[in-house]
Amino acid sequence: MTTIETPLKYSNTPEYIVPPTGYCPGCAFGLSLRYFLKAIGPKVIIHTLPGCFVSRRLEYSGKPIDLTGSPCGNAASFCAGLSSALEAQGDTETVVVPWTGDGATFDIGMGAVSAAAERNDNMLYVCNDNEAYQNTGNQRSSASPWMTTNATNPNSAPKMEFKKDVDAIMAAHRIPYLATVTVGFPEDFMSKVEKARSIRGFRFLHILNPCPAGWGFPSEKTLELARLMVETKVFPLFEVEGGVKYTVNYEPKGLPLLEYIKPQQRFRNMSAEDLAKFKRDVEERWRRLQFLASYKESD
User: Fold this and answer.
1) Which range marks the domain in which residue 196 is found?
2) Cystine design at 139: which of 16, 119, 152, 283 (Cβ 3.0–4.6 Å)?
């Protein structure tokens, strides 16, 4: 895998992931977790679900990090209770982190996530999005992009629905903070985690993680694709404060979309006409984001 240096600010901070991790070769989940924990620090409770995260060892200076677990559908509800219990004990420093996937967020757990966001429960909700139910064999989720081939598509037909815009949904709840990040831009990633740690209430961190096994690309290309998804405008890096203040954190180079699409076997049924339609959707979403970021609150 091509390497990207850890930002100098965090180069001497403790490591939390203890090998062997058990992640697939080239998996971005482990690197996402590494960056997150180095930025969030030891005062954290990670809440895990069935999925790619299960059975990983996390330690800080030889001491295990606190982990809890629950079924996929109620991570946000469980963590709302956990956060309330900590506050009742006078603990206002420990950060409660539901560490979830796109299936548990976009689909199975959406009701619980929406309820926790509406109540502004105090947690830093993390969605590790690899655009399918990858731990059980690349089944379609509502996070799967249009024209991708998944294990549950009939006769290997591509998905004909566009990806659910979970960021717009969460921003509509007027939560204090929302941000998109990827392992291809570690400094942006870790600075946003630090910012989210300093805010109270419901915070939402959306990580898009390339998956070699599910997306069908060589494992050494993970970080290359993590950067291409941003540079082609497929996954812009931005943050939203209070549901209204949008900030674009990085101006993409506008590289050809095909550079991102071509290495992935999941797009193997995409024609030139399909690619043009995909590009129109990417550009429309990018223009919408630029419009929202140009909005200025009145004095």
Assistant:
1) 8-294
2) 152
Per-residue pLDDT at 60: 62
Q: What pLDDT is stored for residue 50 in this prediction?
A: 80
pLDDT in tens, 173-195: 999 999 999 999 999 999 999 99
Return the CATH number at 75. Answer: 3.40.50.970
Whole-structure pTM over 0.85, yes or no? yes
* Amino acid sitting at position 220: E
CB atoms within 10 A of CB 55: 8
Confidence at residue 299, expressed as pLDDT on a 0 to 100 scale: 46
Task: Give burial (CB, 10 Å; 0-12/13-18/19+) of 155.
Answer: exposed
Total domains in the fold of the chain = 1
Residue 81 domain flag: yes
Q: Per the domain annotation, does 33 fall within a domain?
A: yes
Contacts of 105 (CB under 8 A, 6+ apart): 113, 125, 127, 129, 143, 166
The pLDDT value given to residue 77: 96
